[in-house]
Amino acid sequence: MSEPLELKKTLNLPKTDFPMKASLPLNEPKQLEAWQEADLYQKILHARAGKPLFVLHDGPPYPTGTIHLGTGLNKILKDLIVKTKSMAGHYAPYVPGWDCHGLPIETQVEKELGGKGKVAPAEFRKLCRAFANRYVEQHKKDFKRLGVFGRWNDPYLTMSFDYEATIANAFLDFMEQGYVYRGRKPVYWCLFDSTALAEAEVEYEDHVSPSIWVKFAVVGGGKNEAAKIGNDVSAVIWTTTPWTIPHNRGLAFHPDYEYAVVQTEKGKLLLAADRVAALQSECEIKQAEILGAYKGRDFEGMKFQHPFLSIQVPGILADYVTLDQGSGIVHTAPGHGTDDFNTGQRYGLEVYAPLDDKGVYTEGLPEYKGKDVFTANPIIVKLLADRGALLGHHSYKHSYPHCWRCHNPVIFRATDVQAQLPALLALPQSGDFPGYRAVVHRHGCDSASRQGEPFHRWQEVFARGSAGRNSQCQMDSWLGRRAHLRND
Question: Which among 30, 88, 177, 350 would be 20 to 30 A from 48, CA to CA?
């Protein structure tokens, strides 16, 4: 009986020593080492010298820990683009970088220390620098292992002294040309981390706030028929931030809306005519008889008595007032909101926000002074009730800004020390752009103001004010250091 035919014997297959398995964990390091020994990256650049330039500016990661899938994918895609351009005939150097300043690194160091305030600020900065260095080196090792080509021996680090000196030099350029001034501006502020936040660092989550309707008694003033309104009438505002009431400096009316004085069992009240029904519903008012109608523009300049402080606040006009919520009259605290601030600037209102970095009142009545803003909410509600100024109060669930790192609710707070640029007129047409970008990166909320870059030193220049007795001496001292900044 014949043997069965083995089909594989009928095939003319090549014989090779090529392994069936790639064994990449073993072979890739050998290949990477061979590329490094051959200085392949520099040879590629040398071969493309004089060719059209292609530069991919690396948006740097934070060195806050080992790389993850996101950072790995980011760097691989960039490497793919650079190598593709190089193979297409471009001179395509790649300079990797790391953002070594800011809250992410501070947060990680605080975790290692076991909390905030464990060491002096100078020592804390040293620890942040050491932490960043540690993970920069770890990132280099990991990115090289992924086969990414680049100038690994000389990356750009925002904490390098050369980089910081460039920023300082750019700032002094702006200062010399008169583009820098000291001002106040409300920014998002995290009470837990004691830091300003950019808009991109804010996330919205559900939050329950106290919703209150408050009376501000009419003192007098106004225009046309509104000037005849007696001081037995009170304007009504609605807010979900009772803690800002002590810092109220105006009541905003829409110039084109119709407002009405209504007789209720809680007194004569002034509000937008279209919001009377909402007032009745929210404040449990049974009867509301309209006594007179007025245009919002007629309340500009009218004076109102603050419900518990010995100050009078003006009626002002603003186009952002809506009839979707509240009374149609907006409680305005220029130190605690962008719209409030901008309107306050037009009317010359005080930007009043006496809070420390933890949101604790540093000024005010004994009832709330020394307490943080969220603790003060029920205290101020009670204060309003005791003064007979509270019309309605209930809990209100809504979307509210939270810190994206600690997920605690944030506030708007006017900060004192800011280096602001009224315009980008001083931006050079050429030169060391990264330094200039770092200064103008955020109008009023630059991350450099938090840690590392020498904003804390520049603040010394402004500490005494432009008219201070030693300010010119201080300025001359700073300007005298420019040669060192440029030469070093």
Answer: 30
Q: Which CATH architecture has domain 200-412?
A: Alpha-Beta Complex (3.90)
Determine the Cα–Cα distance for residues 284 and 263; give it in Å rounded to an integer.
14
Fold (topology level) of 49-154: Rossmann fold (3.40.50)
Please give the model's pTM, rounded to 2 decimal places: 0.69
Average pLDDT over residues 134-160: 94
Q: Catalogue the E-assigned strands of 254-347.
A: 258-264, 267-272, 288-295, 303-305, 312-317, 329-332
Average pLDDT, stretch 189-199? 88
Which tokens in the block code for residue 388? 């007979």
The structure tokens listed for 370 are 């020394």
Domains 49-154 and 200-412 alike in fold: no
Instruction: Convert the pLDDT of each residue in 352-367 to its tens digit.
Output: 999 999 999 999 999 9
> Residue 419: which residues within 8 A CB-CB, separation 6 or more?
171, 180, 182, 439, 446, 449, 455, 458, 462
Buried b (16+ CB within 10 A) or exposed e, 103-139: bbbbebbbeeeeeeeeeeeeebbebbbebbeebbeeb
Q: Report the pLDDT averaged over residues 34-51.
A: 95
**Crossing angle of helices 69-87 and 121-145, rounded to 10°:** 60
pLDDT in tens, 374-412: 999 999 999 999 999 999 999 999 999 999 888 999 999
Question: For residue 82, what are its two tokens?
Answer: 């650079």
**Domain ranges in the chain?**
49-154, 165-183+418-487, 200-412
